[in-house]
Amino acid sequence: MMRNFKLLSLRFALSFISAIVLSNETIAQDAVPEEIVEKTEMKRIAYSSKKGVEVFAQTQNAKWCAQIPELKIFAQNENAFSDSQLSDLMNKVGVVLESDCPQIEAVSIDGYKNNTLIYRGQASKEGRWKPENGDLKTKIRRLQVSINNTKKLNGTSKISATVEKSALETRIYSKNKSCSIMYTSTVDPDRLKDWTIAVGNNSCSDNLIYGKAEVSVFDENGRFVEALDGFFTEGRWTGRKNLNVVMLNRYGYGPDNQIISYIIDTNSELNIHYIGYLHTKYNKKTNRYSAWTACNPLVITAATENEHIFLNKTVTNDIIRSAQSYADVVCSGATKLKFFATTVAQGIAGMDLPDDFEGTEEKSEESVIYFANLDRKLGQKWKIVEDKKTNLARMRQLEKRNNELREHQLMMADYNDLLKSDYLGRLAYLFNADRIDIFPNMVLASQLTGKAVHVNIMARINKAGLKNAVADWPRPFLLQRIGGLIQSPGWYLLSGDLRLSKSDEVRKYISTIPNEEQKDVSGLMTLELSSAMQCDSELCGEATDLIGLVRRRFEQPNWKPYLSEDNGNQENE
Amino acid sequence: MNSINKKIDDPKYDYNKQGYNQVNLSVESHITKSMKIALVALLLLFIGCGFFIYSLHTEESSTAIKNFISKCKISNNINYKNISFSFAEDFKMNDLSVNFNSIPGYTFKVESVSVINTRYQAQMLSFLEMNLKHVRFSLSEIVKIINSNYNKNHDDVAEVISGINPTGDLLIHPLYILLLSGLDNVDLDLYVEYFYSPEANDLSLKLTFVENYIGELNLTVQLSHVTNAQAGRIPILLRHLLQDGNKTADIKHILGGVGVNKLEFYFKNNKLMNGFCKYYDEVYLNPPNSKSICDLSDEEKNKFEQEVANYLSISSLNKTYNKEIASELSEFVSRRTTISGNSKERKQARVPSSTNNVLRTLIDILVQLEINVRTLRRS
């Protein structure tokens, strides 16, 4: 039941987050008064005529200054994006950025030469604006910031994580109630609610502590409990590391398993959310919990409602690679990674394999599509040491069945169309053409326009050579450029350009026919062949076998339409 | 005289001898010499006068015809080489070139137009008999010009032609159907006999049309209640056919409200029907070396007759009559020989003032006249 509750709450949180992330702009627009229309423009913030470089920032509503703005650098020479030159440039741009936009913490960089994108990177204030290749970090950070800001704009609770009862967590305030933290403890919550904190070096502007602070915890009797010095995110102590993540769900399984899930990134195209997990360790001796950390163990879940993307091996591999990249960003020193691909984020599945998860159909978690244990040595690539694909296999089986059903429906649709078609329509289907033309009509069209007309026709070839052939039905005509398409006399479906025969073609033809037929050669036509299909029977009679036509088209020799046995024979005319 | 009155018994005058002849001859030569001269002179005079009158008549008539054509404002549409006269006809125009404004750049050739007889009554043409010999034109050339007139590009033309159906499009694209049936270079003879009585308001028309590929068509129709105004519109219609004008309005005006008293037709097929059937066979993929689809089997005939009878039943409730007509038509389709028909005596039909469906109106008229149709059955 607990698990179901977690599922529900996570699903709620996930859908809430995805709604925000995927329609970020929409929400932003709803939140903004109507008369303010968002305009995206470029503003030049720096340039160097000597180096032929211009730096633009993307503005919204004429404002470019943001926590993580997008910079576009246009250069005349691609050398501008070499390590040394770009570092030099960013050094100077950083000065501009810090002076004009104090809240800035990082930038993403798109580099262009002659309006062609040739470089993608990022730089952060923390890193003294040294450019790095790739923009994953800033992308993640921008996402988190955007979610956070949107929540603040919507006036939602500052506690973004949903706190479950299983979480051994209580909110503890300062004496004047201006500050608070989210405190994990095994102490009775009724006692905890009387505990207090004293905060130093933090303004507590959001009541819950964010950023660096020195916090002392006192019990209900005013006795000192412990000091929490370091960084805080949403009132939760993260120790020396400023995690600053967007938290989703706070829950636990007993004192030894206290967890917070948080969002790492979202791929809106594939509708996948990458989720990480923070945990705090319980020290039985001191009865205290450690600072929240993300890396030990390191678990990443790729959660999606669109489970079918995992049927594509390329996509699955890409997702795993993304998870590996995130692991490098979030925990660069980690050597072990657990990766889950699920249809919905699960607390249990996100932390560990479920106890009873053995990969069998009866016992497997249905929402876990794929699981992998990855290892690496420091400085080397991740390697999959173990993976389980049971549900994936089941999904593939289901997908295969669905595909078969879809194909059957398509075949039935074709079959029903054929039932209503006339013989020419069935021939067209056999030949995979739009239509089969009426030969005398096309001859007249060619004669009246004086031009070749493209035709698809049925004809009987009575003479076939290497380069040309002669047909005698529906009327005598010549075929040119047959190029191996006509091997022997017989009935064919032909496609090509029909035109009036040239005089030398007529002369050659006359020499091969008896005298009594020679008078009828006026208006002789020539077909310049582009494709041909030999029929099995006279007048391509196989076109009367409708079931055969559909089987042939879809390469399903055993297919049957949904017919009773009585009706089965009636359709073959 | 004394020298003549000789006793014949006189042995000097033996009639069997040559002398007798000499005596007669000498008497004759004495008379005809001067008379001969007079006769010859008279003859020459008559011939001269006759020639003079003939040439005067010729010149006057030619001028009159020219003026007539000019007065009708069709001198740009009709040109001819010369006009000849004979006793057999009023006049004959030779080597005509006829241009229709609706087919610019194309000339119809006519070897001769003989106006055999004309009569006027109350300043209206009351009788005309004429013969057109060897009217020649090319259907495909005409179609090309019409298409280019309508700014149809090659793709449009090909698209329309590719979708043509021999029965469904018979009235919609008649020229294409004729071409597809094998008719292109037309060479026809046309005989026309026209009669109109301005007082009685009766009009009759007889047409005989002969073309080598098509065959022979004879049509006789007698109309009543044709007002002078309606009859007077006929030349205007002819002019509008040559030039631009509302031909439909002309036809409506001429025929609206007239009575049809008699109708006879005769058509002898030469090659056109066979050409149409060959085209029909190609459209419906008739296998090689098999009989034509037009050669209806008994079952097919029954089906065809049923369809025709059903179509006729909208105009006629007489099932027996409908069945007879359908039967004759199915025979004609199968045999493609001749078909003829004539209206029943004292039956009359009225042409409506307007119609939405020309074919239906025609069927209604034929049914009212109780047309009796016959097909020649070869043994």
Unreliable sequence segments of chain A: 1-38, 155-159, 345-364, 564-573
Percent helix range of chain B = 40-55%
| Termini gap of chain A | 62 Å
Largest sheet of chain A: 8 strands, mixed
Helix content of chain A: 25-40%
Radius of gyration of chain B: 31 Å
* Secondary-structure element pattern of chain B, one letter each: HEEEEEHHHEEEHHEHHHEEHE
The best one-word shape of chain A is elongated
Give, in spatial order, the strands making up the sheet with the most strands of chain A: 7-14-15-16-19-20-21-22
Mean pLDDT of chain A: 80
Structural commentary:
The complex is a heterodimer of chains A (573) and B (379). Chain A has 573 residues and is an alpha+beta fold. In chain A, a hairpin with a 5-residue loop joins β11 and β12. In chain A, α8 (390-420) packs antiparallel against α13 (546-554). Chain A is elongated and about 125 Å long. Residues 1-38, 155-159, 345-364 and 564-573 of chain A have low confidence and may be disordered. Chain B is built from ten helices and twelve strands. In chain B, 14% of the residues are buried. The model of chain B is unreliable at 1-10 and 13-27 (pLDDT under 50). At the A-B interface, α10 and β23 of A face α2, α3, α4 and α7 of B.
